[in-house]
Amino acid sequence: MKVWKYDDNINTDMLFPGKYVYTCSTLEEIKPHLLEDLDPSFAKNVEEGDIILAGKNFGCGSSREQPVVGLKAVGIAAVVAESFARIFYRSSINQGLLLIECPDAMKAYSKGDNVSLDIENGKIIVGKKSFSFPRLPKEILAIREEGGLLPYTRKKLKKNR
């Protein structure tokens, strides 16, 4: 597992360049362009289970879904940031991408530190320090577990018939 650390105000255009919005529609077309202008090594080296640490206002910008869909598709375990843009946050819930607000964890990280998440207990361990974050609502965890809001809703509807 790798940790990718970025600053404040990482916008959706940095996560997935707008010039590809109308030409890339499949996951395989989206993946190679993730963070290409911000961090050209990301798409080539990201692995399932990696974590992104970021500053304030992560995901600001337009409401396009490719950044969230792409990050989930490459297997990002979680994005831990000081704060998230509202539309990006909602889109992440819809897609089942885990977002955690924990400013202290992000600030404590130094290159090479191990990072581990204990989602159920609301803990992040960075190096030798432990940080708490508000436990995620059971509905958010269930949406994540089902792979997003659409599969979650389908399952609930099927169950209630």
Low-pLDDT stretches: none
- Sheet-strand content, in percent, reads 15-25%
CATH class: Alpha Beta
Counting DSSP H or I runs of 4 or more residues, the number of helices is: 8
- The N- to C-terminal Cα distance equals 41 Å
Inertia-based shape: globular
- The pLDDT mean sits at 94
Tell me about this structure.
This protein is of the alpha/beta class. It has a single domain (3-159), classed as Alpha-Beta Barrel (Aconitase, domain 4). Helix content is 35%, strand content 16%. The protein has eight helices and seven strands; from the N terminus they run βαααβαβαβαβββαα. It has helices spanning 12-15, 27-30, 42-45, 66-73, 86-95, 103-108, 138-146, 149-159, and strands at 3-5, 51-54, 78-81, 99-101, 115-118, 123-126, 129-132. The chain has a four-stranded parallel beta sheet. A three-stranded antiparallel beta sheet has the order 5-6-7. Helix 7 (138-146) crosses helix 8. The termini are far apart. The model has no long low-confidence stretch (mean pLDDT 94).
In short:
The chain has 161 residues and is of the alpha/beta class. It has a single domain (3-159), classed as Alpha-Beta Barrel (Aconitase, domain 4). It is built from eight helices and seven strands.
Itemize the secondary structure elements and their pairings.
Elements: E1 3-5, H1 12-15, H2 27-30, H3 42-45, E2 51-54, H4 66-73, E3 78-81, H5 86-95, E4 99-101, H6 103-108, E5 115-118, E6 123-126, E7 129-132, H7 138-146, H8 149-159
Parallel strand pairs: 1-2, 2-3, 3-4
Antiparallel strand pairs: 5-6, 6-7
Task: Name the features.
about 160 residues, alpha/beta, about 15% strand, single chain, Aconitase, domain 4, 7 strands
